[in-house]
Amino acid sequence: MKFLIDAHLPPSLRAVFQAAGHDAIHTLDMPDQNASRDGLLNEVSMAEMRVVVTKDTDFYYSHLLHGRPWKLILVRTGNLGLKSTKLMFETHLPEIEIALHRCTLVEVDQQMVTVVA
């Protein structure tokens, strides 16, 4: 799978996805870096079939109303430290992968992965 990690999440999260064999980029890898607009992230997601990983609920509503981005992981946590964020994804990544094969929108927090759509 391909992932696009939004600016609200640490760039080092790429390594968690890459260690599991996925293609992962962060907004810092894009021309406008963390200033990349949501519309551009949606375009990249659709064109490259990338799952957007974000804390931004604007993507949640855009996905439900317009089907953009292509697929979405909405992170439902407060501000976690880097170590806790990486641990959360390392712990839940197998379940996230399964969920994304059968749906387009999942929410993740420290305790669980929830399929939304």
How many structural domains are formed by the residues? 1
Low-confidence sequence ranges: none
User: In which order are the strands of the major sheet placed?
Assistant: 2-1-3-4-5-6
Give the SSE order as H and E letters.
EHEHEHEHEE
End-to-end distance:
18 Å
The largest pleated sheet is described as: 6 strands, mixed
Q: What is the mean predicted local confidence, pLDDT?
A: 96
What does the radius of gyration come to?
A: 13 Å
Question: What is the strand content?
Answer: 15-25%
Number of helices: 4
**Would you tell me the structural class of the helices and strands?**
alpha/beta
Which bin fits the share of residues in helices? 40-55%
**What does the overall shape look like?**
globular
Number of distinct beta strands = 6
Protein model, in words:
- The chain has one domain (2-115).
- Helices cover 42% and strands 21% of the residues.
- It contains 4 helices and 6 strands.
- Strands 2-1-3-4-5-6 form a 6-stranded mixed sheet, sandwiched between helices.
- It is globular.
Short description:
This protein is α/β, with parallel strands linked by helices and 117 residues long. It contains 4 helices and 6 strands, in the order βαβαβαβαββ.
How would you summarize the topology of this molecule?
Elements: E1 2-5, H1 13-19, E2 23-26, H2 38-48, E3 50-54, H3 57-66, E4 71-75, H4 82-102, E5 105-108, E6 113-115
Parallel strand pairs: 1-2, 1-3, 3-4, 4-5
Antiparallel strand pairs: 5-6
